[in-house]
Amino acid sequence: MNITNLEYLPNKEIVEHYGVVSGSTVRAKHIGRDLMAGIKNVFGGELKGYTELLSEARDEAIDRMINQAQSMGANAILNVRFSTSSITAGASELYVYGTAVKVQ
Fold it and tell me: In what order do the strands lie in the sheet with 91-103?
């Protein structure tokens, strides 16, 4: 599956347009990660627990978007964008969306 934030794939022709596809996941903070984040806030440095949490969330949302596109018959997703929103205290949604197409 070709995935890009461009509106086209260089040297490829769009032969079929399937429409918008998306994937999302809602993740909550983990007490262990919160404890370590509190310590890092005092001394500074990367909050690796949260970095890992966001990386896992991105991967899961992208996988869900790809599965939706494949079920339509697409072999590429163009104009991919990410969005986040707060669902409740301590939980956030990561949402990814793009345009499913078939290219040659």
Answer: 2-3, 76-88, 91-103, 14-28
Residue located via tokens 């956030």? 92
Integer-rounded Cα radius of gyration of the chain: 17
- Which residue's entry shows tokens 């627990």? 49
- For 72, list phi and psi in degrees, rounded to 5: -90, -15
Length of the chain: 104
Range of the domain at 36: 2-103
- Single pTM value for the model: 0.85
Q: What is the CATH number of the domain that holds 43?
A: 3.30.110.70
Residue-wise pLDDT tens digits, 71-84: 999 999 999 999 99
Helix (H, G, I), strand (E, B) or coil at 48: helix
